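Example record for the data management plan.
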Amino acid sequence: MYTLIELQKKLLPDMLSVMQKRFQILRSIHFMEPVGRRTLAQVLGFSERVLRSEVEFLNEQKLITIKTNGMSVSEQGLSVLEGLSGMMREISGINEMEEKLKELLNLQEVVIVPGDSDETPWVKQELGRACAKRMKKRLVGKNTIAVAGGSTMAAVADMISADFIGDSDTVFVPARGGIGEDVKNEANSVCAKMAENTGAKHRVLYVPDQVSKEVYQSFIKEPIIKEVLHLIKNADMVLHGIGDANVMAKRRNTKEEDMKLITNGHAVGEAFGYYFNEAGQVVHKVPTVGLQLQDLQKIKHVIAVAGGSSKAKAIKACMKSATKSTVLITDEGAATKMIGY
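Corresponding structural encoding:
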């Protein structure tokens, strides 16, 4: 038996394409509001003429409001977005892609959000929102959540609010030290933002991400650092992003001899200071203070968040070393490339 969506695809394909286009426009207005028509046309890649007619239709249906400072989605429009979201995932084939990617990567769950964060900046917010939703489902009783740094983790922090932790007793800890990038994206800052947004507690780990073996041994003897490291390694949940190997190596100001190992090893992805080639093999490891790859084996919930078609190889490579309990949250752009559509 055909589902209703399958029947509509066969008999009314034009109607479905129009619905998808209007849903995309409405969703984009919601994430960018208030937004002008010209800006929206540029983001979506539509001509202003095409967008004008669609905007007029949405306005006539009272799904948006138009003011001098731009367009916004009305309450009725929000209801339509919420009501159609599940159907649009089925129409676009995202549900099927999730199952294929879960099987391909041998993971507990794969969540795909529509769009490509390389092309549309607000898709990263959707990745953050999807992560927050999965986190909330897994919070029971007392929880320690270890969080890595990065712009994607910062987007997750922006998407969680006071109702996130509910009755649970939650503390956020940085998964590792800083790497000298933008301070607001370092793990300590992301943890502080999550704690601030939820009313939870957090701990800090003010040590460099990369240290020599001698300095590392000195650090871990300090009582405060030792206590935080114990919390990190015994976390109930870990949140982390995935980086492009070359981008991360340059950001770390990697030494020339180490850069050769990364380049000659054909590394494509990075997570927790480990550089992976396409086969998922570790070709270089940065000495870091904090969570190590082997620590993930005993952590109940691991959520990896990364998107953008440019990161497809990096995500696929890093996920080959992931635990079966890992949940991957990615976007349509990366998922399409990983599956090979």
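Summary line stored alongside the record: The first strand starts at residue 64 and ends at 67.
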